[in-house]
Specification:
Elements lengths: L2 E3 L14 E3 L3 E4 L16 H17 L8 E8 L5 H14 L7 E6 L9 E8 L4
Parallel strand pairs: 4-5
Antiparallel strand pairs: 1-2, 2-3, 3-6, 4-6
Helix pairs in contact: 1-2
Length: 131
């Protein structure tokens, strides 16, 4: 069973891709930029950009009737690893706020540039327990 995920609570795709896909037991999101889906605006600072990207990931995951605690893997793309401490702080607060039992596994990769010249993009994989 495969379902395309689409929600107005995350920004629309800016290219030929979808926000996410539900494969039944596994949900994959596309990389979520820090675009406010209501206004189309991008926050200025990396902390606010991190939070917005996380909120957008959450919205796509919730479109599959899952929650933050179901996220098992995240990939974070940043344009400046000097922002790593700020990103970690916001990231930890986000998962603590939703009382995630465990933090997901994660990769953090510095890239030369991201779409719309944002500083961060985050993608996630979530798992639906069959229990």
């Amino acid at each position: 069973m495969t379902n395309v995920l689409s929600t107005n609570d995350a920004p629309a795709a800016i290219g030929p891709y979808i926000q996410g896909i539900d494969l039944g037991g596994t949900v994959l999101t596309s990389g979520q930029l820090p675009i406010n889906p209501g206004t189309g605006e991008v926050p200025d600072d990396i902390g606010a950009q991190t939070r917005q990207s996380l909120e957008n990931v959450k919205a796509v995951i919730e479109a599959a009737n899952l929650g933050v605690s179901d996220i098992v893997k995240m990939t974070v793309f940043v344009t400046d690893l000097n922002d790593f401490n700020i990103i970690n702080e916001v990231y930890g607060q986000f998962f603590d706020e939703f009382k995630a039992v465990n933090y997901p596994v994660r990769s953090c990769i510095q890239v030369a540039r991201l779409p719309k010249d944002v500083s961060i993009e985050i993608e996630a994989t979530a798992f639906r327990s069959q229990a």
